[in-house]
């Protein structure tokens, strides 16, 4: 029998708000609904206007709802990496059961025990990513359930962020009438699936070139280890074009997307287009080569800033190279330019799902996939309210272990009827 689950993600970006409805049947994701609305009220990844943001979220939700007939109630929310700190934490518990078999309950308790570490009042916990479990003295365990032991330990990375930042995001989501099913740090969810196992293990910089910000996430030994955010993105390229070509921002944005090229040497002299001049009836003619210089200068600066940030984060070497994503990564010639400036291997990641084959959708897709792989690991259903922490131990997406006790004792296992009811609630209101 087919097993079908519905996952809905919300990515509140500086340029646009994306809502995706994903249907996961037999472990295959199909994106069945997309909402994508220009955002107002977000600068450099942080919310500066609550009302405008709430409105844009509602609009994006409506779009996705209309496409599918599914009423959106709960979302998987991405938190931007601004002001994020990653720090190692440890949890320890004694195994509870008489036969000393480690169960879901022990796993839950060890995760909780790692969270008791005091978090400063101005910080908020976003995710806890297990690095390894240790059963008695045996380490490097990815999933301890089913093993026999006395003492269960967990080494994890705790991700915290500014309380103000996260509370403003939550406020907007709640005011848009949505519940939150799960929260993940954006580059954690996005990078986990955009990078190959080798890239995650070798040391790779995952760079999300967004509208208002550029997010750097470094993966090493299979885990997210460092993050940094630079307050520049595609909007700066648009602004440069708008100033130099003397054309309105909307025009500059269209031209960038249609004719833009990042690498002067490869840009075309023959690709000529008309550009309306602001405040007049006249148009000017420009070539792709001409604008590639403007775009290239700004991008070069952005990549230099990325290099500075990597140095500040203490990254000396990137054996796995660089993976670019985010809306700006769609620019032709960007990989060549990045290779030249950063002097390393560079590839572009674009999600490979019908309806979202653009690098701007990487985060929204990653949120769904991350939530699904956690559900698999914990044996929970997307309709349940999760109580667990983030799992991401090891280099492979966590796989659920068959565990009879959990299967028998899980009263919240979804029934097909419940899920159908949820989907059709809309029609009974
Ligand atoms: N085909 C394209 N060519 C060039 N730039 C593009 C293209 N498509 C999108 N962009 C640019 O990508 C940016 C938006 O990217 P994205 O949707 O990833 O950002 P965001 O998530 O809204 O913002 P942020 O991550 O900074 O909060 C915009 O500046 C847009 O102009
Ligand atoms: Mg983004």
UniProtKB/TrEMBL annotation:
Q: Which InterPro entries match?
A: ATPase_NBD, Cell_div_FtsA, FtsA/MreB, SHS2_FtsA
Alphabetically, which GO biological process terms does the record hold? FtsZ-dependent cytokinesis
Q: Where is the SHS2 domain?
A: 7-194
Annotated region described as Disordered, given as residue ranges = 391-415
Subcellular compartments: Cell membrane
Q: Which domain of life is it from?
A: Bacteria
- SMART domains in alphabetical order: FtsA (SM00842)
Query: Which SUPFAM superfamilies does the protein's record reference?
Result: Actin-like ATPase domain (SSF53067)
Q: Cellular component per GO?
A: cell division site; cytoplasmic side of plasma membrane
Instruction: Note the topology in the membrane.
Output: Peripheral membrane protein
Say where the protein is mainly found.
membrane
**Plastid among the record's keywords?**
no
Its annotated function is as follows: Cell division protein that is involved in the assembly of the Z ring. May serve as a membrane anchor for the Z ring.
Homology family:
Belongs to the FtsA/MreB family.
Q: Which NCBIfam families has this protein been placed in? A: ftsA
| Protein name as it appears in the record | Cell division protein FtsA
Give the source species. Answer: Ureibacillus xyleni
- Highest classification ranks of the organism: Bacteria, Bacillati, Bacillota, Bacilli, Bacillales
Q: Which gene encodes it?
A: ftsA
């Amino acid at each position: 029998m087919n097993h079908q689950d519905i996952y809905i993600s919300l990515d509140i970006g500086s340029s646009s708000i994306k809502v995706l409805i994903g249907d996961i049947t037999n472990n295959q994701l199909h994106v069945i609904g997309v909402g994508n609305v220009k955002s107002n009220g977000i600068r450099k990844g942080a919310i500066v206007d609550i009302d405008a943001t709430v409105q844009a979220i509602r609009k994006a939700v409506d779009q996705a709802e209309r496409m599918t007939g599914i009423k959106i109630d709960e979302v998987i929310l991405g938190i931007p990496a601004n002001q994020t700190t990653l720090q190692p934490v440890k949890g320890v518990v004694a195994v509870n059961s008489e036969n000393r078999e480690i169960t879901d309950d022990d796993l839950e308790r060890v995760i909780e025990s790692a969270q008791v570490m005091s978090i400063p009042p101005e910080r908020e916990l976003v995710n806890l990513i297990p690095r390894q479990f240790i059963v008695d003295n045996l380490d490097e365990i990815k999933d301890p359930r089913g093993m026999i032991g006395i003492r269960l330990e967990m080494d994890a990375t705790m991700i915290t962020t500014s309380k103000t930042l996260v509370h403003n995001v939550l406020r907007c989501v709640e005011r848009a009438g949505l519940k939150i099913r799960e929260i993940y740090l954006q580059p954690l969810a996005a990078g986990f699936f955009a990078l190959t196992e080798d890239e995650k293990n070798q040391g790779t910089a995952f760079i999300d070139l967004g509208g208002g910000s550029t997010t750097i996430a470094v993966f090493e030994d299979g885990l997210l280890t460092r993050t940094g955010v630079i307050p520049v993105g595609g909007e700066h390229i648009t602004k440069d074009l708008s100033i130099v070509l003397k054309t309105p921002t909307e025009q500059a944005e269209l031209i960038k997307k249609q004719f833009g090229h990042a690498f002067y040497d490869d840009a075309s002299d023959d690709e000529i287009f008309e550009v309306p001049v602001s405040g007049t009836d006249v148009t000017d003619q420009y070539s792709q080569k001409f604008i590639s210089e403007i775009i290239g200068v700004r991008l070069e600066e952005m990549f230099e800033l990325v290099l500075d940030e990597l140095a500040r984060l203490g990254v000396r070497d990137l054996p796995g190279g660089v993976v670019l994503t985010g809306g700006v990564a769609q620019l032709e010639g960007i990989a060549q330019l990045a290779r030249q400036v950063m002097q390393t291997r560079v590839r572009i990641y674009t999600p490979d799902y019908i309806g979202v084959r653009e690098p701007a959708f990487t985060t929204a897709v990653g949120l769904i996939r991350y939530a699904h792989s956690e559900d698999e690991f914990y044996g929970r259903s997307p309709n349940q309210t999760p109580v667990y922490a983030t799992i991401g131990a090891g280099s492979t997406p966590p796989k659920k272990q068959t565990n009879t006790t959990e299967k028998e004792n899980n009263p919240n296992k979804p029934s097909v009827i419940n899920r159908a009811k949820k989907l059709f609630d809309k029609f009974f209101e």
